[in-house]
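Tutorial handout. Part one gives the primary structure; part two gives the three-dimensional structure as tokens.
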Amino acid sequence: MKRRIFILLLTLTMAVSTIACSTSSTSASTDDSQTESTEQSSSNSNKKSAQASAASTTETAIEYKALDVKTDWEDAATITIDGDDVSIDGSGATYSDGVITITDGGAYTISGSSDDIQIVVNSEKNVKLILNGVDLYNDDGPVIYGENAKNLYIELAANTTNTLEDGDDYATDSDGNPIGKATIFSEDDLIILGDGTLNITGNYKHVIASDDDLYIESGTLNITSNVKDGMHANDLVVIDGGTINLTSANEGIESENSIYINGGTIDVNSQDDGINSGVYMEINGGTITVYSEYNDALDSNGGYEGCITINGGTLDLTSAESPEEPIDTDWYGEIINGGDVTTHTNGNSSMGQGGMGGRGGGNGGQMPNGDRPDDGNFPSDGQMPERNGMQNKDGKGNFTQENTTNSTTNQSTDDTL
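Part two.
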């Protein structure tokens, strides 16, 4: 009996020892792995890791939602602005101390000019602002602020030119947070349409922004961003039509999730990424010209093959030199099913820009598009792998890569922002 007890105790002791050794071995292996990882990270501190990009991507792409444009509007009021003098013919709007506040649904036609005005929408219903020839400036916040609305429509009346501009310092709330983030800013879905022209400038942050979805349906938009993005949305950016001429000191068009371009004529000239999506970008049509001075023309941080998919359209894309690219998917590979795509590089280097670039810029850029190394690691000699080109599925589409750089005048670093 004692012998059995002794054998049992011996067996248990050996088992505990084995587990302890295994744990120790595992710990040592983990430590070695961490050390190796740290060394690898250190040796490639100026390169963007595709693996890290994939690991950090937790969002899924928001599916395209076709816009059902509301057309059955009831006229609520006509608002005429003349400096500090504002007249309101109708209901649903009030004016006080430089702020026009709209609290009911319907269509509001606005005309006139002022160098100190803000339009605030706060309603549970659909609201449409018809810009019928306005020239408006607000020094300390958005010119148009959609604080609350089911959907906020902004229509550019036919044959009119409308000008909006904000200041470079916004008022703050009781917690010290800026009230708004763009010259036109909506907390909810924002839809821009019409047959007129909008000249809009942003001096604080973005120019046109929505914390939900942003739809561009029609109209001519001339956008100048002196600080951040020309167009920005937290969820979707959808461009179905219109003419967009956009110049930005930072990024041109950005969605923190997905971008869908179905039509329109788009011309983006940006210092940073021209068009950037956090998760997914799909181009189905339109004539799109993008010139990025120091970064990528198209950039998606989705971290999977096809996070940029081109099904149609005519695209002319210019980026800075490698490691920046005309189409950047962090190595995972874009998919081209159709369309006409031409790419160029402009001879500029992003390295001298201190890694400018927000979501897509990184600290010194990323590896060129094409196949990732078999072992998933960056080359130890710091040399870039040979570009393997676009993925042109089923022989559809037309892709042209220009081997010569564009003849352009490079801006100095001091002039970029």
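Part three, for discussion. Residues 1-57, 354-395, 403-417 have pLDDT under 50 and may be disordered. Residues 2-43 form the longest helix (42 residues).
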